[in-house]
Amino acid sequence: MPTTTVLSENGASGVSSLDMASLLLCAYELGDQINQSAEVADYLYWKEAVHQDDQVKQLSRQFEKAKELFSECQRFGRFHPDYHSAKDKVKQIERELDQIEAVKRFKLAEQMVDTMLYDVSRTIAESVSDTIKVPGNEGKTGGCGSGGSCSCGSGGCG
Prior knowledge:
The protein contains five helices and two strands, in the order E-E-H-H-H-H-H. Mean pLDDT is 83; it is low at 141-158. The protein has a two-stranded antiparallel sheet with strand order 1-2. By secondary structure, it is mostly helical. The chain has helices at 20-35, 38-52, 54-74, 83-98, 101-128, and strands at residues 3-7, 13-17. The longest helix is centred in the C-terminal third of the chain and has 28 residues, at 101-128.
């Protein structure tokens, strides 16, 4: 059994025996429970619906082309003659994608899974110590064209 040095909250160190195999087994069981949750099932359903949607596929291709054009314009900054129109085109396609019901539902399901994972992480961290920081996704949004991970078929949406 491996031995781990542990620092208490007051900074004193001690030696604690920790069975990593048992801990990892519990972590995998927790992962399995999360994967069997209604939130993950909903997320996977809408992810597949988005992936199969022909309108999303078409708009995703347009989005990629618009992003490439905007990326070219960005190299020269806002003084590029097409900078603003290229930027507006990207935003317009993002709005169109956001109006598709499957995309709306996918984003909502993605947020629900993200919230669940954050809550689980926070609970684990707080069970160890109140001072452990848990990274969250406040200020980040996922899905198509929002700067998060885009699972709508258009690749990485930057």
